[in-house]
Every structure is written in structure tokens, then in C-alpha cells.
Batch of 3 targets.
Target 1
Amino acid sequence: MAFPTQVRLVEVGPRDGLQNEAEPIATATKLELIDRLGAAGLTHIEAASFVSPKWVPQMADHREVMSGLKRRPGVVYSALTPNLKGLEAALECGVEEVAVFGAASEAFSRKNINCSVAESLERFAPVLARAQEAGVRVRGYVSCVLGCPYEGEIAPAKVAEVSKALLEMGCYEISLGDTIGIGTPLKAKRMLEAVSREVPMEKLAAHFHDTYGQAIANLYAVLEEGVAVIDSSVAGLGGCPYAKGASGNVASEDVVYLLNGLGIESGIDLDKLADTGSWITQTIGRPNRAKVGVALAAK
Ligand SMILES: CC(C)(COP(=O)([O-])OP(=O)([O-])OC[C@H]1O[C@@H](n2cnc3c(N)ncnc32)[C@H](O)[C@@H]1OP(=O)([O-])[O-])[C@@H](O)C(=O)NCCC(=O)NCCSC(=O)C[C@@](C)(O)CC(=O)[O-]
């Protein structure tokens, strides 16, 4: 397979990047972050998460964030909705795309959304039906595709099975999450091989965390296989509340630098993105985990 000529980045910093922050972050800061990301050329920004505030307190202002967006033309602002309650609230705030999130690991599914994998799919079915009725697209996440913090190894066949179920239910895209950033390139390729037998490559996205420093290598491997959608987080912000020790997503700045080097079009202004990474990390008092961001800031 050849590299794609164009890649779409899904910026998950405002949601995945911030959800694990213990100190409340002002809604205005979240809105400014989202706006800066749009100004840097991101066309798909995951802005909020309509989950229980008891489970993820940092996302408790989901209504204010979703309703307060300064919407830029051509930019999709999406939100996580694990159930109908979340979806209805998101619809009231004018959401145009949502995501359901399942897992390839039973243990992770229980810790994250308090139900088995099969039960989660049952819960998602009415979410998809209602979203379809409202004309809202639904993305499907599968967590733990390259390993689970509780179960260890995850069979590629299980990832393929859950991905296929989400696709058949009506998800337009399946995002494959290396939740704990434990994968390596060969493993990523093997997993992708199994999944792409059930889900067309053009409907797959890579959502890799960088805990073990392998995310860029893993992305190179799956780009080579034809994956053309990458989830990333500005400044490498993030971690998962239900995956102890997991560090942030791969940094958007590092991904754009990789894509530029490969001659793959992303439409993103790297300097503006790097400025946004410097700004948000200074604002919330976090280290900037984007190597490219740090290098550019030091110039
Ligand atoms: C899914 C539930 C809600 C089930 O939680 P539950 O306790 O099984 O659900 P429930 O229906 O029994 O409701 C319990 C309480 O939550 C409320 N509730 C119920 N639903 C909602 C909602 N939508 N919005 C707001 N509140 C809600 C509900 O009203 C009730 O309130 P109470 O009566 O106790 O006051 C819970 O487990 C939850 O919120 N989990 C959040 C998990 C999460 O956000 N994890 C992080 C995101 S996933 C991720 O990061 C991975 C990903 C996507 O990035 C990919 C990767 O890297 O792998």
C-alpha cells in the first residue's frame, strides 16, 4: 500500500487532552483553545464529552462549551455521547457530530463505561438510531486495540469484531485507540490487517497515545498501510482517567511535522498549531509534550 496523499487530523485535545486534568479549567480557556485550533487549520475538533460529571468532572461544562463555540465554517465540532442522555443534551446544544466509545477489552469497558462490551453495543444502538434521525453523524471508538491496562494482550480478532459491529450499527468511521500507548509498529500493522478485513481502510482512524514513545512510529506504520485519518492532541495533552499511567495522545505538532516530511497534505499551519500548544500548556501549567512544539518555540 502507498502513503495517502492527504490526511485528516481529528484534534482531540479539548476532550481527550483535558478530561484527565484534576483542576477545573475555565470554560473560556477551553473555548479559546478550540478557536485557536480552528484558526490553525484543524477541520475536525472534538470539543466536549457529554458523560457523567461524577465520572469525569473536567467535562462537566459540556453544555457551556458546546453552546459557546465560535463556529468556523468548514470545521466540525464533535462530542462524546455514551448514551441517549448524553446524546439528547448534545443535540440541545446544536452538536453536528457525536462519538460512541466502546472497547476491545471487557475489563476496560466495565471500568470506563460500567458495562460489558456486548451491553455497550446494546446501549449504542438507540444512540445511533436517534442521531441518524437528527441528521447527526456518529463516530465509533474502540479502546485498547493494542493492549489493555487490566487484561494485557488483546487479540486483533476482538478489535476487528467490535469495529465491525460499530460499523454495521451505522458509525461512519471507526477510531482505533491504543489507549495506553503500548503498541509497536509491527503490532499496529497486524491489528490493522485484521480490522481492515472487516472495515474498509478509508473508514478507519488511528488514535494512538504516546506512553511508550512509539506513537509516531506506529502512525508511520499505519500510514504506510493507507490509514488517512489521525487523532491527535495539541501539545500531547492528555491521559485516560480509566487507564492508570497512560500519557497523552500523540502530539498534533509532531504528527503535522511527520506528514509535512512525507509530503502528505493536512492543511494545518504548523507554526500556529505550535503557538497554540505553547499557550495552552502555559495556561494550564502542563509540560509541552510535543517535541516539535518545543523545538519550534526554542528557535
Ligand atoms: C457511561 C456512564 C454514564 C455510565 O454510568 P452508569 O453509572 O452505569 O450510568 P447510569 O445510567 O446508571 O447513570 C448514573 C448517573 O450518571 C448520570 N448520567 C448517565 N449518563 C449521563 C450522561 N451522558 N451525562 C451526564 N450524566 C449522566 C445519571 O443521570 C446518573 O446520575 P445520578 O442519578 O447518579 O445523579 C459513565 O460510566 C460515564 O460517564 N463514563 C465516562 C467515561 C469516560 O468519559 N471516559 C473517558 C472517555 S473514553 C476515552 O478517553 C477513550 C478514547 C475515546 O479516547 C479512545 C482511547 O484512547 O482508547
Target 2
Amino acid sequence: MADEVDVVVIGLGPGGEDAAGRLADAGLAVAAVESRLVGGECPYYACVPTKMMVRASDLLADGRRVPGMAGDATVRPDWSPVAARIRDDATDDWDDKVAADRLTGKGVTLVRGRGRITGSHEVTVGDRTLRARRGILINIGSEPVVPPIDGLAGTPYWTNREAVRATAAPGSLIIVGGGFVGAELAQVFARFGSRVTILEAGDRLLARDEPESSQMIAQVFEKDGIKVRTQARVDAVRHENDAFTLHLDGEHLTGDRLLVATGRRSDLKSLGVAAAGLDEDARGIEVDGRMRAAPGVWAIGDVTGKGQFTHVSMYQSAVAVRDILGQDGPSAEYRAVPRVTFTDPEIGAVGLTEAQAREAGLTVRTGFAPLSAAARGWIHKVGNEGFVKLVEDGERGVLVGATTAGPTGGEVLGALAVAVHAQVPTATLRGMIYAYPTFHRAIEAALADLEG
Ligand SMILES: Cc1cc2nc3c(=O)[nH]c(=O)nc-3n(C[C@H](O)[C@H](O)[C@H](O)COP(=O)(O)OP(=O)(O)OC[C@H]3O[C@@H](n4cnc5c(N)ncnc54)[C@H](O)[C@@H]3O)c2cc1C
Ligand SMILES: NC(=O)c1ccc[n+]([C@@H]2O[C@H](COP(=O)([O-])OP(=O)(O)OC[C@H]3O[C@@H](n4cnc5c(N)ncnc54)[C@H](O)[C@@H]3O)[C@@H](O)[C@H]2O)c1
């Protein structure tokens, strides 16, 4: 006999965990199905542990910046406190008891195992069938993509999941993929002493960002001793005698560890979405402004393709919960999705890049200001790489995108995320007072550049 509830949540990433709790708080009977860890990728394998790594590598970098600025310092990297902090503070040794108890404490029925949609309003987990009176909320997230490179599958390569469990910084590390994961982890391990090489198939690092961001990070990485090869095509991978050998472009490259960071995808087939009337061969699940994917089916998080970020998953959770509870509220809006690459310097970005704005047919005007030319950048001196770039819809006189790169680029982004979200006229932004001497004062200089 089937267990009857109001809502079945499949997958407990940040959004699914949040939604299950909120729906239970609202008095609904909720079953939440999770095959791995309650909380999903972010707390155990992604955002939190990698940002602990970043924090540690930033400390090393600042220590190395002391000479010539503040005296002498000798920096001797040691990975063990980083590994211990990730194991003990961030992940409880990859044990989700605290999160699971928190959820069941709200009255949610936690069902461990892989959920499969087996009919309208029906989910099967092992030999258990769950019937959802109101519907199913899908939050299955995404899995690392592993490219079909000859020999790779049989080797002990890392994805982010193994990288965060590292107990030592490898002597040498080859990273395939120069996007978010590749860039953040390349710098972390390089600053802990690993010889790092990035192999990127495209023609630049961080290809989703402005070309100026790619150019800046390439220069920073060169100073960090990171080797970058773009337009790299790995033909084969071998693992012998504890070392990886990669064959590419007629050469070979060896390394102690290999990190595959080539993007992520969602497995719709094994979820059985066809039983809910959805296309199982699609890249993701299409949702409307209320997160509805089909009658009685909602989806949130990476699987929706609206930005693979925890804040998007959480934002969509609130929208889906409102709709499931029959409450009114604004529909989802993605005009101002913020994103931060936590390299040093950080690269904050929101909305459209210049190229995307042009592709959208807008009359684009841009403004650019390097941080080094701003008083705070000059004061900061070593480590002051960065800039502010603004993308304006010239016809409407509002910003549609912005990039803030610099020592606190992710924080400076806040101001411009508000501007893009609220469509604040650039004339109004120009009339503001920007505190002296802050990094965000470079916004004023970029606005002046935009005016020409
Ligand atoms: C290395 C790395 C660093 C990142 N850093 C950041 C960052 O700094 N900031 C940021 O905003 N984002 C970051 N991200 C992205 C972020 O981790 C994800 O966007 C975020 O986890 C949201 O994903 P989600 O809610 O879609 O689900 P996920 O976190 O992917 O969780 C989905 C859950 O569903 C479960 N599941 C899947 N299928 C089934 C099934 N059939 N039955 C039962 N359970 C199932 C999985 O086990 C998993 O626990 C990072 C990602 C990576 C890889
Ligand atoms: N700070 C953050 O918010 C943060 C940090 C890490 C990850 N994330 C999220 O996780 C997602 C996944 O990150 P990611 O870095 O894996 O993906 P990504 O899409 O950012 O980058 C993948 C890169 O791999 C390259 N690539 C693909 N196949 C290749 C091949 N065979 N050889 C060489 N290069 C190849 C691509 O050209 C691309 O540049 C991101 O989309 C992001 O949303 C966010």
C-alpha cells in the first residue's frame, strides 16, 4: 500500500531541504527523498568546503604580501588544518545527522534512497511507494560531467567530491576545465604548493564571464605559477605508478592528481520524468515563473537551468512553496542573477555580459574603471587587480549587467545587483555619493566612463 502525503520532495539540495521544511511548517504532510546527504552538494562537496579552502589560500597569499608592505613574514603552507576544518566543522565527516534531525524535527518524513517518478503524483523509492496528493517537487541537482576521454573512466581522477576530501595538497595537479570549479581550485592548490596546469577546451578561462575577467585571471594565475593551456584537447588519459599521463595535441603531460571540472548535468532519465509527462532527454526541466513543470510537478535548483547556484535554488524554493500553498506572490525573475567566482581577486557578476546584451539586440553602452586607478586600489597596492565594468541598455538608461572584480569583488557586487534588479536609472546612480576611499567607489568612475 502507498504512503499518502501532500507533497513528495525528491532530492534535498539547499532548495529542496528548505522547501520540505517550509511546507511542513505550513502544516502539510511532506515526504522528502534523498539518496545521498540531506543538504545536497553545497554543504558537503561544493560551496562551503571549497570556500574554506579559498579562505585558507587567501590567508597564505596575504602572508606572502607582507614583505615590502608591513615587515617580514614566512609562510609555510600546511593543508592539515584545512582538511580537518572541512571534515570536522563543515561536513561532520560527511555525516548529515544534524540536517536530517532538523528536517524530521519539523515533521518531514525522510525517506533514504533514490526516488523515481512512477506515475502521476507517484514516487517509488526501493519497495516503497509514495502518493503525493498535491504534487511532487523535484530538486535533484546536478552531477559532475565526465567527458568521454579514452582511458579516463578507469582512473582515480577527482571531481569536486574527491577534491574536498584531499588530505594533502598534491605535488602536481592537472585540471581539465577552466570554469568556476577549475579556477577556484587551481588557485587554492597552487597557493598550497601544488604545480597546477589547467587544460581548457575553449579559448579562455571563465568563458561565461566578461573577456576582461578572463584576461585578468589569466594574468593573476601566471603570477601564481599556474600554467594555463586553452584550446586544449585531451585525447587519452592513463594512470600508472601513482601518476596520471594525459595525451594531448601530440604531447603528453604528467601529474600526481587529475581534477575533472568540465561542468555538471542532471540525470532526468533515471528520475523517470517521462512518467510525469516531461522530456527525459532534455538538459533540464523547464519551469514557469511559479516553478511549475507539469500539472502537479514543480522543479527547483540546478535542474531548472536558471543558474547553478545555491542562491538560485533557495530563491526558487520560496517561489515554489508559495505556489504549492496557493499563496500569491511575484513570479520568478532572473534579470539579476548574481554570481561570484571566489578566486583572489574575486569576480562578481550580475545580469548580462556585454556580449549577451548585444545578442539580445540592446543598444549597449559600457563603462569600465580599473581598481588600480581608484584611491582604494592604489592604497591597497599589492593584490589590487580588479575593475568595475557596467553594461547599460542605452535606450532605457538602466544597467542590465555588471562585473566587479577585486579584493572584495563579491561584496562590491551587492550595489550593482540592486541597480540591475531594481532597474535604477544610471542617471540616479550617477547622482549618488560613494564613500571615500572604498573599492565600490570605482562604480562612480565606471559610470563616468559610460557617459564618455
Ligand atoms: C565545487 C563547487 C563549488 C560551488 N560553489 C558555489 C558557491 O560558492 N556558491 C553557489 O551559490 N553555488 C556554488 N556551487 C553550486 C551549488 O553547489 C549548487 O548550485 C547547489 O548545490 C544547488 O543545487 P540544487 O539545489 O539543485 O541541488 P544539489 O545540491 O545538487 O542537491 C541535489 C540532491 O538531490 C539528491 N538526488 C539526486 N537525484 C535523486 C533521486 N533520484 N532521489 C533522491 N535524491 C536524489 C542528491 O543526492 C543531492 O543530495 C558550487 C558547485 C560546485 C561543484
Ligand atoms: N563560486 C560559485 O558560485 C561556484 C563555484 C564552483 C561551481 N559553481 C557552479 O558549478 C557549476 C559547475 O562548475 P564547472 O567549473 O564544473 O563548470 P563550468 O561550466 O563553469 O566550466 C566548465 C569548463 O570546462 C570546459 N570543458 C568542458 N569539457 C572540456 C574538456 N573535455 N576538456 C577541457 N575543458 C573542457 C568548458 O569549456 C568550461 O570552460 C557552474 O556552472 C557553477 O554554476 C559555482
Target 3
Amino acid sequence: TSNAEWWRSAVVYQVYPRSFADSDGDGIGDLLGIRSRLDYLQNLDVDVIWLSPIYCSPQDDNGYDISDYEAIDPVFGTLDDFDNLLADVHSRGMKLVMDLVVNHTSDEHPWFVESASSRENPKRDWYVWRDQPNNWESFFSGSAWQWHDETEQHFLHLFSRKQPDLNWENGDVRQSIYAMMRWWLDRGVDGFRMDVINLISKDPGLPNGKPIAGTPFGDGFPHFSYGPRVHEYLQEMNESVFGGRSGTYLTVGEMPGVTVEQAQRFTDPARGEVNMVFQFEHVGLDHGPSGKWEARTLDLVELKESMAKWQQGLGDVGWNSLYWNNHDQPRAVSRFGDDGEHREKSAQALGAILHLQRGTPFVYQGEELGMTNVHALSIDHVSDIESLNFYQSALAAGTSQESAMASIQRIGRDNARTPMQWGPTGGFSDGEPWIALNPNTTVVNAAAQVGVEGSVFEFYRTLIALRHEVPAVVHGDFRLVEPLHPTLFAFERRFSGTLLTVAANFGTAPLSYPIAGEWLLGNYEQAEGPLRPWEVRIYRQD
Ligand SMILES: O=C(CO[C@H]1O[C@H](CO)[C@@H](O)[C@H](O)[C@H]1O)[C@@H](O)[C@H](O)[C@H](O)CO
């Protein structure tokens, strides 16, 4: 890999600052807390740290509603704390990527305050105002439009009412965002994770979406998820922000609904847009017809088919990001594995299946420990705006509290946001955490795993070492084997004479699958014979 494309052989660790490590006992994680845990991340040997938003924000959506892009929210610390953290990260040979949230701002951002002050304000056109709303629904339930009494118009917010969408058609908006990004690059950051960046271009005229049965809304998604100018904007951004700079940066675009064909265009290096995208196909396979809140049984054959399609689809052009979970998705081991009897083995099997694929793996904080979903006892324990809005609208639509709570317990975002489990009593904070600790911290915690052979942590450390040492892990092409097998997930990676074979048993019934070559790694002690419950084996042939 040329240095220019260092991100192809990198492993990224996502930190959710609110829940990672609290240094001042206020119950909310912060920058000094993250800094105090850099030994842990260096020991795991990750290459990049992605920080979810730490900017000034009313925290309506936990920081994804920004009121000042060039200031650190005091709850997380100061710009000095940030500079010191960045210097420390760099001195350890790691890199740091910021979260770029520019499809929308907070309604408390001065840009919106000005825009809302009067119809004549020069920044009126920085946002999307209309006399008449269309029928688009917000991602967080309800209409995507909010009436504004003072200026008697509606403004667009695809997410919460406190997250008005920016109007990217306006060149001044774009130039202000590019200047802000350059400001952070000048400060030394190594790239950006770009929030819902495929939503920034809306279809002209903002046409109504196809009506959604049983709701007053229409499906606006096709009209803003791949707008006519999205490629133009990303190329302009790339040129204006990264053009002419000697350094090379990691850019990953979060793109709900993106297809393989679109991703080939977004990540083709020749087009100068982004290095990789977060696609959502595999994290939508257990969504029912009406969306994420309706359960659908996950089928391994479908999961394999989806992953193989993306592996092959971006095999020649472009590049994949690889992830099982993040701060918006439930915990991987609870969703795709078995967080009961086989928690450790299934967490390790999931880790191997993801990290041995072609692309850049993202580890979400706590995934390397096999952290699980938390069984939120009641709506009073829920803090995520998406879940709270869903609960309200579900009850208004006649859903029972039990069934709405069951959906939130299964797939709500708070499952990913409980405090990092550093020790048997938690170790996240000396104060009362902003969100309840998962009581299984007594058994699932870093102190019980770091340096302990056979632990999920040590297994993840070995997977990351494999990517750093074995070129085939980075560059090998991908071939799925036994695609229709209901419990076997197996594939091959080939690169300049090396063949890696990965085979995992996604069940508990013994599964025989003989593999040729030298046994490289597994989550059980080495043994021939059938694969045991949630066993994964990696073999190498040269
Ligand atoms: O697609 C997004 C966008 O998420 C990004 O954008 C959202 C708005 O900024 C923010 O809430 C998320 O935290 C951020 O990652 C999610 O809202 C997703 O659809 C949903 O949460 C899954 O249920």
C-alpha cells in the first residue's frame, strides 16, 4: 500500500466520547478521559481513532446537532485538551479522525439563528424554508418540516426539529464548511467521518414522496438520498479541502441507502470524492417491512449474500468500510451472535468474519470486549431521541407500551451507548453515569480480558496484528464458499500465492468443514474435527 492509501491497511476504533471515559466525575465522558485510556488503544494496536462529535452542541441528538464547529463542548473539555489529546495520539503513531456533521446544524447555531431572524436575512437561504411543507417524514418520526411562527414559514429537518438541514445549493454554505474543515486539518486531524453525507443534495422542487400506508407521510428518501449534485459537491469539497495538501487523509462517508453501484462511484480514487462509505445493507436485514422497529428474523444466507456482494462489488474499484456496529446500531454480539452461553466465542467469530474481509475494519468501543445490549427496563431509562420519538409516535398509533419497549430493547441506539466497561464495577466514572451501566460489567470488562489468553480482547488484538502482518488480509480478493449453507460462514482470500481460508460456525450444532493449509488462528484451542459452537478457524496456504 503506498503511503497515500495508508487507510487500506488500517483498523479504526470508534470512540463515543459521552460513554468512553469520564475524568472529572460528572458522569459524562470527556477528552481527558480518552487521553487516559490511550495505552489501552495502543495495546489493541488500532491505527486510527474516530471521535463521534465533541463540538459545542445543545446535545439534542448527543452532539450530532452542532452549534459551533470550531469549539469543543465544555462537557467534553477545551481546545487545549483536544490539542493535547491529538499530540498524544500522534506521538503514539496513531491517527485521529473527526466527525463531520454538515447535512444539518443545531437550530442554536448562529447561522440558523440569523437565517430564522427574518425572511430578508442574508442567511435565509442557508437553510430550506418553504411556505408549504411536502409530505416527507423525519428519520426521528413525525414530519420533516417545522412551522416557524416568527417568519411564518416551514423549515426542513430530516432529523430532529433542532437539526435544521443546510441548503447545500448555496455556495456560501459550502465554502464556509470547507473553511471549517481546513481549520481542523490545520490543527492536525487526519480525516473525517462524514455524517449522512449522501443526503446533502435534495431533488429540485422537493417533490412529495410516495405515500406511506397508514401514515400522513410519503417516502421522501428517493428524493434526498442520492441527489443530482451530491457527486459534484463531494468532488468540490475534496478539491477545496484536501487539494494541494501534502498529507493524506482518511475520509469515510456515512450513506444510508447507498448501493454498490453508487459506492463504486463515490469511492473510485480517480473521481476524488471519499475513500470509503458506510453502507447499511447488512444492518437492515433484520428490519421488517415497516422499518427498524419491526423485527425480522436474520437469515445467515442473506447476510453472507449481502457481504459477498459488497466484497465483490468494490473488489476492483473503490473500497469497503467493514463494521458490525456503531453508536446507532445495537451491539453486534446481541444482534448477530449469541450474548448468552456463547457470548465470547460468538464475539470472536464475528470479529474474525469481519476483520478477514477486504476493506477497512471499524471497531466500536466495547465490541472488542464482547459488550452486549442492555435491557432498558422502561422508557424512563431511554435517552436516545430517535427511540423516544418512536415510542411516542408508536403509542399514538395504538401500539402497546410493551411492544414499543420491546422494539427499543431489541434495536434502540442506547444499547450501544452505555458506559464503557473498564472493570467489574464499571470504571467509567466516579460519578453517576449519564446513562445506566450495563449490570453485566461484573463479568464483561476490560480488566478481566487485557493480557488474558482466550479473551475477546486478546482475540481482537490478534486479528488486528494479522492485518498488519499478512498482506493477503489487506489485498486478497474475496470468494464466498458454501453460500447457501444455513450456519456456515466461510470464505477465501487470495493474494500473490497466499490463500487464506476462514470458516465459522454461526450455530451450536457441530459442523464439519475440512480446510487445507496451516492453522493460523482460531477461538478454540487447535483441533481437527467438526467446528464447535461459534467456532472460527483461519488457515493459510502458500
Ligand atoms: O442513518 C442514520 C444517520 O445517522 C447519523 O446521523 C444522525 C443525524 O445526525 C445521527 O443521529 C446519528 O447518530 C448519525 O450516526 C441513523 O439515523 C440511522 O438511520 C438510525 O439511527 C439507525 O436507526
